[in-house]
Amino acid sequence: APLKSVFVTFPGEILKNMTDQEFANSYLERFGYLNLEERSTRLASKSKALLRMQRHLGLPETGELNTETLSAMKQPRCGVPDIRN
Amino acid sequence: YQTFTGDLKWDHNDITYRILNYSPDMDPSVIDDAFARAFKVWSEVTPLTFTRLYSGTADIMVSFGKLDHGDPYPFDGKDGLLAHAYPPGEGIQGDAHFDDDEFWTLGTGPAVKTRYGNAEGAMCHFPFLFEGKSYSSCTTEGRSDNLPWCSTTANFDTDKKYGFCPSELLYTFSGNSDGAACVFPFVFLGETYNKCTTEGRSDGYRWCATTSNFDKDKKYGFCPNRDTAVIGGNSEGEPCEFPFTFLGKTYDSCTSEGRGDGKLWCATTSSYDRDQKWGFCPDRGYSLFLVAAHEFGHALGLDHSNIRDALMYPMYSYEEDFHLHQDDIAGIQYLYGPKTGPDPTPPQPTDESPKTPTPPPTPSAETPKTPVTTPDTAVTTSRPIDPSQDACEVNQFDAISEIQGELHLFKDGQYWRVSAQRNGEIKGPFPIADKWPALPATIDTAFEDLLTKKIFFFSGKRFWVYHGQNVLGPRSLEKLGLGSDVDQIVGAIQRGKGKVLLFNGENYWRMDVKAQSIDKGYPRYTDEVFGGVPVDSHDVFLYKGSYYFCRDHFYWQMNSRHQVSRVGYVKYDILKC
Predict the structure, then answer these.
(1) Catalytic residue among B295, B320, B406, B528, which?
(2) How far apart are CA B331 and CA B58, in angstroms?
(3) φ and ψ at residue A29, rounded to 5 degrees
(4) Distance from CA of A59 to the nearest CA of B (A)
């Protein structure tokens, strides 16, 4: 019978223990989709930022953090921001 | 496509780049080639040219680094962020950084260039057959010296073509040992090491001593990664150890067990549970060529595109037969225009070649012989400026010297003056014969004696001395005490009152101006005192307290402590073209 997977923290690895929401927020902020002024009105602005990101990267524009958007965020990429604040 | 705010771009088309360090993942020559091809992507569709510098400051400084690597944007370990670059400008602007926690390849797995053997440095061919067995990585099988090797064709048994794979037993890179192999064991801070180590470094790069005692000899180099080495983790550079145990279970190959991201890893000792030493297994890696071509796009002024197939799209994807997307072409040509003129051809004799008098240009020589057209526009253009009249069109001057407070630039019987006071305004050209009628058209060197205000001119094996309108000469260089083998003086630097240094290639002499003779103890070697400047400089002069050594259209500026303080363009930095 297959064993149940056990996840371990590997020494020396940069800890990336973030939830998908936290990861998405940091992505949107890092690459310029969520700008500083919008941080105070988080919910509405996050949807706007997701829309902006989806449009910019040619993804279906839903304004929601769906699987396709999350997967795009996890793709290897260039570190230069997409949108400049 | 997008450009950066304000359409940031270089104000010149002859861009320079410098590779500051190398990744251990590929042979330095493969990395050099990947960067050169990445620049070529852009030079093929624009008038831009890219020249590699080996010292000093280049427009685009290229480097590898990990995590915090000296700028405000740290990398993030394997995968995720691959690289970043800055838009054109001074300082860090224009520079490109590559995350060395990535596995850099040509996009399809380890790119292993061989050395020695009989394959003339060809790449390994994986898989290959050796004694009927298939190998997908370099092997030490069949050898007693433990050197990894590979076949460079699919079948060693039939073709017998092979070379040696990267190994610290074969060579190191960078450091100060000219690529010498590691010496094991070696001593570092009193400890003995039997393999490459990251001890003593904060950047995680593996190094070794190239003599048995680093503490004594200080000779070292960086260790190349073997193709079987793990990436990242806490055992960078070590090979997987099979079988290994993990949570009590034995593994004979890389596994993704224990991870939520599906990445394959292995232990580098026989027991992960005991030693906790691990790393990611080599995968296809990221194409350094493709990532570099993208980053250089930023360094030239392109921002991210939202066209998924464009090179400037922010996400990485591997493309086997790379072609620059029309969106990228449109973007870069918006900034720099399309490529004009023919492809480079072997150099032809031009006005740059011999330093001999040339006849004045004739009307037919000034007129472009064939109209310059571009495929896109088919518009005929002509050069509005006569190159023989514009100092900004001169690539290499015969001589440059500060005379009577103004920089004088000599070329083919003419000279220009640049005022240091009046914002660098260029005046001229003026015929040399009008002011110094005794001189020939080609001047190799000129300098003004700070004490007597006499002006010395050198051309070939002769020199002249002007004092106001009075002239002495021509006299032979031998009269100064220079050997008959000295065919010209290419530069002069005033050294205090009454002394001047005269340069010719590897040698320089000190001349006593009053006695008009060379001091004893000369010639001396230029690079012993003026380290870091080209020994084949064709112009050497003193200007605003700094020494300038020129080669082609570049200059190396050196301060009075003999440190190179800047490398730049004569045209843009000195003439302000």
Answers:
(1) B295
(2) 24
(3) -75, -45
(4) 10
The C-alpha of B183 sits at a distance from chain A's nearest C-alpha, in angstroms, of 28
Give the nearest chain A residue to B315 (CA atoms): A77
User: What is the C-alpha separation between B379 and B357, in angstroms, rounded?
Assistant: 36
Residues with pLDDT less than 70, chain B: 341-388, 420-423
In degrees to the nearest 10, what's the CA dihedral of B89, B316, B260, B264? -110
Strands (E), B125-213: 128-130, 133-135, 149-151, 162-164, 186-188, 191-193, 207-209
Centre a 10 Å sphere on the Cβ of residue B538 and count the other Cβ atoms it contains: 22
Q: In 3D, which of B465, B460, B502 has the Cα closest to residue B481?
A: B502
- CA-nearest of B295, B221, B307 to B34 is B295
Contact B141, B153 (CB under 8 A): no
Active site residue B352: no
pLDDT digits (tens, 9 = 90+) for A22-64: 899 999 999 999 875 555 555 557 888 999 999 989 899 999 9
Looking at the DSSP assignment, which residues form a beta bridge with residue B408? B401, B417
B365: helix, coil or strand?
A: helix
pLDDT value for B378: 28
- CA distance to partner chain B, nearest, from residue A15 (Å): 10
Give rounded-to-5 percent helix, strand, coil for chain A.
45, 0, 55
Residues of A within an 8 Å Cβ radius of B: 3, 5-8, 10-14, 31, 55-58, 72, 75-80, 82, 84
**pLDDT score recorded for residue B357:** 34
How many residues in chain B? Answer: 577
For B106-146, what is each residue's pLDDT tens digit?
999 999 999 999 998 999 999 999 999 999 899 999 999 98
Chain A contact set for B295 (CB, 8 A): 78
What CA–CA distances, in Å, run from B221 to B204, B415, B445? Answer: 14, 49, 42
Q: Which of B338, B345, B350, B300 is nearest to B552 (CA)?
A: B350
Q: Could you give the dihedral angle defined by the CA atoms of residues B42, B306, B85 and B234, in that order, rounded to the nearest 10 degrees?
A: -120
Residues of chain B neighbouring A77 (CB-CB closer than 8 A)? 80-82, 314-316
Mutation for testing the A interface, residue in B63, B68, B81 having most A CBs under 10 Å: B81
Query: For position B568, what pLDDT does the model report?
Result: 84
Integer angstrom CA distances of residue B2 from A82, B86, B293, B376: 10, 14, 16, 21
Neighbours of B151 (CB within 10 A): 28
**Of B336, B77, B75, the residue nearest A80 (C-alpha):** B75
Q: Could you say which of A7, A75, A80 has the minimum Cβ distance to residue B315?
A: A75
